[in-house]
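User: Fold this; tokens only.

Assistant: Input:
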Amino acid sequence: MSRSITILSPVPEPAAAAAPSPTPAGPTGRIRVGALANGKPNSDRLLDGLLEVVTTDPGFVLGPRLSKGSASLPAAPGDLQRLASGSDLVVTAVAD
């Protein structure tokens, strides 16, 4: 007996005519994407995959990437300041 497993990707297929990108605020002329791993197991792996996909677009560049170390504690104020000053967009991940 054979079984099949369907794996779905959260990444949409590219549209035939993409909408214009937002105006970047960073000095490089590209949108700086920062990342904050929240300390949950595999959250860093989820961010790795997401950032790999996002940064293939020439309109984006990787910004600061930090980990807060523990899911039960808030991020340090200095880390939040670094993310805010070095990013136009910050992504965080929750994964188990």
